[in-house]
Design goal:
The chain is built from five helices and 13 strands. The protein is 26% helix and 23% strand. It is α+β, with helices and mostly antiparallel strands. The longest helix is centred in the middle third of the chain and has 17 residues. The strands form four sheets. The protein has a seven-stranded mixed sheet, with helices on both faces.
Length: 244
Amino acid sequence: MYRDGGVEPALRPQYSEEIKNGLRRELGQHQFPRDLLWIDARNITLRKHVNGVLFPVSSRNDELLIVRNFYGTPQNGAILGVELKKRLTWQGLRQAETEFIVWQAESNYPFCQMVTDLNAGGVAFFALPGDGSGLRIMYTVLPSMKDVWGFMEGLVRGLDVAALTSVLRVDAPGSSLPQQLEQPRRVKPRLDGRPSAADAMLTREQLFWKQISTERANEDDVACLQDLDIFGGKPYPDGVPYHW
């Protein structure tokens, strides 16, 4: 059985190739960076356990764009995750949101998560520079596949690949991994901090994961979720960030 709204196994190779081919077409003469690599991430399951939190948060992805040096531990070198769906639904968007939160916590880089059906368009999730009040997530609605390909092209073109890999070279002492990337401007959020007033025994990060795990504990109960039969209606206010 395939995941909720996910692509049937027989169609999976076709969808996977379309993601890569679409990006190549959009890049044109601009070559795909040699230091980046697409991998099939379906067999990688991330689980986030936090002290004081009852449920772990689990997440997988479909396609993952990583820094090649992290091939052995791709979650640590993830730049972009792509969740593939047969059609876009509210449940699929919530799933992609959770995937963003879990994968950004594991990656060493500012991470971006997309969900698309390769037909109607998609949504991208990333973290904005914060104001000290926690993780600020940005939804960007991509209302057509032209917008999806354009978003992916901008993300790849905007990468300073040398900055992504310099800290991994033995001849580059004092280098550090970038905490902010452009196109779109996004950051590697940090969730440590003072104990929350809502629960003095939990740090801000622990409270954050508690909220996520509790909300996702009964994720299979989706009877009240409305499907997006036509993705033309934007499910979120475009360009409006929110806080966790």
